[in-house]
Amino acid sequence: MKLPNGVPTDLELEILKIIWRRGDATVREVFEDLANGRQVAYTTVLTMMGVLERKGFVGRTPGDRAYLYRTIHSERQVLDGMLKEFTDRVFSGSVECLVAHLVGNPEVSPEEISRIQALLCGQ
Question: For strand 58-62 and strand 67-71, is the pairing parallel, antiparallel, or unpaired?
Fold first, then answer.
């Protein structure tokens, strides 16, 4: 799946993860969740939610006192799109080259390689 307008930035992805987890969220709720792990201004979150809406990642509906934001695409769809964009850009679209790079990476443990092999073999 091609993403609506490119891949989300790190902060956009954090916001999307909060909304996926909650199902829907107000700017205040996203701000409070983000503020637990990082220093961020409410106005920054408000701006980023607007950016995500313009990019086609979220939609909003009027709530009782504030807009409720909901993701338009599932987490799987966005992550698949991000992976496709990365694979296209870095490995010329070759999933085989991506997997070969992972398997040959010294940071990937033997246990992880075993689990990858089991996934590829359908076990």
Answer: antiparallel
Question: Residue 29 is encoded by which pair of tokens?
Answer: 């709720």
Tell me, yes or no, if the pTM score tops 0.70. yes
Q: What is the DSSP code (8-state) at residue 106?
A: T
- Where would I find the H helices in 56-109? 75-91, 95-103
The C-alpha atoms of residue 108 and residue 98 are separated, in whole angstroms, by 13
d(CA 20, CA 1): 18
CATH 1.10.10.10 fits 10-71, yes or no: yes
Q: DSSP 3-state helix, strand, coil percentages of the chain (rounded to 5)?
A: 60, 10, 30
Do 24 and 70 touch, CB atoms closer than 8 A?
Answer: yes
- Indicate the SS3 state at residue 33: helix
In this predicted model, what pLDDT tens digit does every residue of 16-47 receive, in sequence order? 999 999 999 999 999 999 998 889 999 999 99
Mean pLDDT of the chain: 91
